[in-house]
Amino acid sequence: MTDxxxxxxxRPTGKLHLGHYVGSIANRVKLQHxxxxxxxxxxxxxxTTKNAxxxxxxxxxxxxxxxxxxxxxxxxxxxxxxxxxSAIPEIGELNTLFQNLIxxxxxxxxxxxxxxxxxxxxxxxxxxxxxxxxxxxxxxLCVKANVxxxxxxxxxxxxxxxxxxxxxxxxxxxxxxxxxxxTSEVSTLVGTDGHAKASKSLGNVIYLADSxxxxxxxxxxxxxDPNRVRADVPGTVEGNPVFIYHDAFNDDPAQVAxxxxxxxxGTVGDVEVKDKLAAAINRFLDPIRERRAAFEAQPGLVDQIxxxxxxxxxxxxxxxxxEVRKAMGLAGAYNQLRRxxxxxxxxxxxxx
Length: 352
Description:
Keywords: Aminoacyl-tRNA synthetase, ATP-binding, Ligase, Nucleotide-binding, Protein biosynthesis. One of its GO terms (cellular component) is cytosol. Its EC number is 6.1.1.2. This is Tryptophan--tRNA ligase. One of its GO terms (molecular function) is ATP binding. This protein is mainly α. The protein has two domains: 5-189 and 299-336, Rossmann fold, CATH 3.40.50; 210-294, Tyrosyl-Transfer RNA Synthetase. It has helices spanning 18-31, 43-46, 53-57, 59-73, 89-98, 104-108, 111-119, 127-130, 132-141, 155-172, 212-220, 241-249, 253-265, 270-296, 301-328, 330-346, and strands at 5-10, 36-41, 80-84, 147-149, 180-182. Strands 1-2-3 form a three-stranded parallel beta sheet. Helix 5 (89-98) crosses helix 9 (132-141) and helix 9 packs across helix 10.
């Protein structure tokens, strides 16, 4: 195993879906053999948009589902360390220290933050959401990650991490690696309703845990060419969600090419195109379903994976925080005060 590290993860807001798979999970599965792998269950990030008590009560259950999805998708438990972000308070300390290495105008230039606020129906941006990339920098640098596989919408966030790492190293000495971005071949996946992005909050996703029947139902309802009112009308393939999913998940390229040709010629109906897409997605998901069932059949395994990973990560982060405080001189400041206070206590009282 290399000593190079990879850090990535998701907010525990529910099960993972095909958009997650193409955006980052496929890369995680591939890269776990090249890097020491750390996967964060980012519940503190979740609080920036979902912080009701009812949301918080769902964290543990959602975390379990996300780990199950990751293992089912091909992450090997012996190769990865899963950890719950909120159980490591030292990450918050790093976040506080990093806040002073970036400016508000720099964070305000990140367009995805405004999109996140809008998706969460926030009329004004919470302070925590504006600082989302700074906390993300703490996540990445707390284990000194070298690479970060993320979807397109997180590129700007990781660039903030790179800036903070360089700034810290410049001010206090070489402490952190400057992590590299690893992008996926399909960075984002369109929603089944034709929306620009597949999103749990919009309900336009196919989950990795969906049954074969659920997949068929969702595919049958997928948005397609709105101008195609009959099967004999030539249709548009470019930008058509059904064909975007065919390209991403159909393991029979000859079938996809034939469907595209006939669709553009007006010699195939939407029903056949969708039926073959549903079959293709189910072929893709079948081995994932089998692995998920195998892990689910081991009671307590996922909880053990999360707890052991969290405890291991906290030990790592505590060492990094010690190095950070030492590099900054913060450890010495209090030690000087303490030593002087101890000397004053030992000094004999002046005789009158």
